[in-house]
Amino acid sequence: MKSLFYLSILLMCLFSFAGCKGQKSYGQKYLQLSATISMPGVKGRIDHFDVNVKDQLLYVAALGNNTLEVADITNGKIIHHIKGLDEPQGVCYIPATKEIMVANGGNGDCYFFNAYTRAKTATLHLGSDADDVHYDSVTNKIYVGYGSGGIAAIDAVSHQITGNVSLSCHPEGFQIDDANSKLYVNLQATGEVGVIEIGKMKLVNTWNKSHRNGNFPMALDALENHLFVGYRHPGKLEVFDTRTGGLQDELTLGADCDDLYYDATGKRLYASGGGGYINIFLLQNNNKFKSIANIPTGNGARTSLLINRLNKFIVAQPAGYDHDAKLLVYTLSR
Question: Residue 107: pLDDT above 50?
Answer without folding.
Answer: yes
